[in-house]
Amino acid sequence: MKYNRKMLFLALAGGWFGLICWASLSSHPPGVETMDSWLAWLPFPKVWKAGARLVVHLTLYGVWAVLCARALKAYRPALPWVYAAAITLGIVLAAGGAIEIAQRWIPNRAADLLDLSGNMVGAALFLVLARRLKTLQPRMNAD
Predict the structure, then answer these.
(1) What integer pLDDT is reported at residue 60 of this predicted model?
(2) pTM, full prediction
(3) DSSP-derived secondary structure for 81-93
(4) Is 8 exposed, middle or buried (0-12, 13-18, 19+ CB in 10 A)?
(5) What are the extents of the domains in the chain?
(6) What is the separation of C-alpha 57 from the centre of its chain, rounded to a whole number of angstroms?
(7) Looking at the predicted structure, is the pLDDT value of residue 104 above 50?
(8) Structure-model confidence comparison of residues 96 and 47, the more confident one
(9) Among 130, 140, 129, residue whose Cα is nearest residue 77
(10) Under a CB-based contact definition with an 8 Å cutoff, are residues 27 and 107 in contact?
């Protein structure tokens, strides 16, 4: 049973990263036209668009960070939470940075340090929330 849980979290983290890559590396990201049309009705649509973009980055990378940390903890239960969080933040920084660099050559996309910082803040925030909610703790007698 433990082997299945290890593979589950690894598959979830890999699948979520695939979703991030698909959304980040396409020249026409999904939902952008819909979001733009809804935000056009609000006052100051550019401010709302920047805020919505930040929420998307926080959420996508935050969920991915929790899945990565949970996969690490499934494979190495004795690994302290601080080390798992540091390794996960390093993975998020490397992958997010690579995606931002790759966006320089994709039409209708641009590399942005604000996006990368949103990725890191989302990852750190979700890791802290997951730790406070105890979702990164291995369950006892879960065989």
Answers:
(1) 94
(2) 0.82
(3) HHHHHHHHHHHHH
(4) middle
(5) 2-132
(6) 7
(7) yes
(8) 96
(9) 140
(10) yes
